[in-house]
Hints:
With 340 residues, chain A is an all-alpha fold.
Amino acid sequence: MELTTVWFSLIAVLWIGYFCLEGFDFGVGMLLPVLSRSETERRVVINTIGPVWDGNEVWVLVAGGATFAAFPEWYATLFSGFYLPLLLILVALIVRGLAFEYRAKRDDDTWRARWDKAIVIGSLVPAVLWGVAFANIVRGVPIDADKEYVGTTLTLLNPYALLGGVTTLLLFLTHGALFLALKTDGEIRHRARSLGLLLGLAAAVAAVVFLTWTQAITGDLTSSALFVAAALALLGGLFAAWRAREGWAFLGTFAAIALAVAGLFVALFPDVMPTTLEGGLSLTTTNAAATSYTLTIMTWVAVLFTPIVLMYQGWTYWVFRKRIAVHHIPTPQLAAEPTR
Amino acid sequence: MDVVDIARWQFGIITVYHFLFVPITIGMSAIIAGFETMWVRTNNPAYLRLTKFFGKLFLINFAIGVVTGIVQEFQFGMNWSDYSRFVGDIFGAPLAIEGLLAFFLESTFLGLWIFGWDKLPRGLHAACIWLVHLGTLLSSYFILAANSWMQNPVGYEFNPDTGRAELTDFWAVMFNKVQMVSFPHTVTACYLTGGAFVAGVAFWLMVRRSTPDADRPMYRTAVRIGAVVALVGGLGVAVTGDFQGKVMTDVQPMKMAAAEALYETEQPAAFSIFTIGSLDGSEEVFSIKVPRLLSFLAENDFDSKVVGIDELREEYRATYGQDPGAKYYSPGDYTPVIPVTYWTFRLMIGLGVVAAAGAAALLWVSRRGRLPRGKAWVWLAIAMPLLPVAANSFGWIFTEMGRQPWVVFGLMTTSSAVSPGVSVGEALTSVITLTLLYAVLAVIEVGLMLKYVRQGAEPFVEPPNPKLGEHSDEPLTFAY
């Protein structure tokens, strides 16, 4: 296999990792006000992802860095072209990350309510915008012969891309609900499972329309097989949720997201960012790539270290595998505000 | 204002801001790891209380460092896409490796450390924070290798077919001679910063009247450990800084001349501690000078010649042509903004020296059960965490402004590095949004820091010491 193809696949794997992992913590964040009815329940919800959300987010940093290293032209065109949506995503990720860390640092209802809003909005915005961005990458955007994006922000808000945003939103909501069903106990668990089922049906409809549309634009045989497998995984997950098998249910949405994203990358290949412009230049795995020397070094680094990362990150999930229920939540961690 | 100006302001603002927090993270993670290790080994409750108290402050600081770090990684592509295209083959690799080797390590093991008190055996729990510290060091290494390449590009070849710089020797980039001095210089500065933070905070708590008398020896221990770390770090910064000056004279002579605002070549050259000059910085009105010091800083020899800006300008013109960044500098002028380089260089050194001297002073007055309560000592304790932080910022402003008009020295100018497709409106939206957001976050962060510093260390609670994989149904030891 060509090194450029290897790196295209590795970047696909990084994005798959990102969406499968941070996807559920986006979902958990958005569902915070929906599934919890008291402060203690809110803390149950937040603590299911407390130890892992930051590690999940690193997947996108590595995906960004790997794109920079392996396909500099792709990185340059994509990041400068999708400027405002990326700025929004950055702001969302900043307030969301701080919200998790700072929310419990003052014993003050207004303070906590504000950070709760930050968690919801900070999870919602990227959940939608990553879908919009990916749909645009697959569909193609106006790129001129100098490899520069020449559209505007409005160009990115086309119906297909917006449907992509709705699809990731609903998928992540479902994924998050089923994660909560797996990781909590008591009432939240039941609420999460029922809601996950409901959201899952909506997600299935959106995903089927979106993936069929994608298939019509740019799909091939492999992508169609992956899309069908994704749909089946999602339905299987929902069936498991209905039968109260939460582990299988979560595995179902996990696999569905992984297969769907894999299908999108297959549909994209060998382009990395096709152009919609007459006389424009599509970025491909060859014309956007780094030199084979750089790719060789990066391959060695990836081969040596990715398994180690997967091992310790997986181990974290094992350490924190236990369900959390209301009675596990300690009384507020803080001493009262000092009197002077 | 055009996009280049705006993009430069954004880079300056968000990078300096990010780096207010990073050195505290790097330095403090080591000290906290030391506290926890001492607790595991000695079972002395004071060390656990210190671990938890400084751990809390550390996390407040770490969170903001992490979230502002995301912007760093994205903005090369967003604002500097032509830079990214031109150097991505070389510059992207350290960034990607930093993510894979360092960011995963830091975030994963920090999660384990924060939430793992009732899930991990004590030794393993302490190992987690050591791994976080290792992650911060790896992160510094790779990002500084990337920066060092911008100061002194090596291991590459310009490929006229692709119109970009391409990597030919990865190890040359990893062991760039600028990197060999910048990495130790930065990391020792981080230890100075972390040590000064711990020493200052602990001293303030030690002498505060409302602190329980029984807790004062514990804070004294922290003062002394923090001060020793700061002193060792400070000594390291000075030595490595001296080496760095010589490497800089070798690879970026204009930066060295700009650091002294030395227009005319001198032999031997004096170092001025303080100068009042004309507004454009080219004529001096009043100056305090140390004879021959600049010669030593530049060449390790009190008699050596230091080449001045005027001569270097001619040399650079001959080497690089007439017009590198004509937009910002008069054509063919390779001079950075001299008042900025001159003063930031002095502020970096000056504040660093004051911080190290402050650490020495705190170490001295905290000896053998003393409880100095003079106002001056309290003010010194309050200033301690801020001094190295300011010195770090001035150091970076110096090293980056001193490289101008280049983004990659001798290879690419800053004005040609910006994204051609980004409009003034977009760039302004970005810098204004991020600056306002960061300002709000700073207020929140400082508020939380002060609150938790005032609270002091919590009483000792014997933490569980579970076997790995064991679970109880008790409430969690820590939860958000």
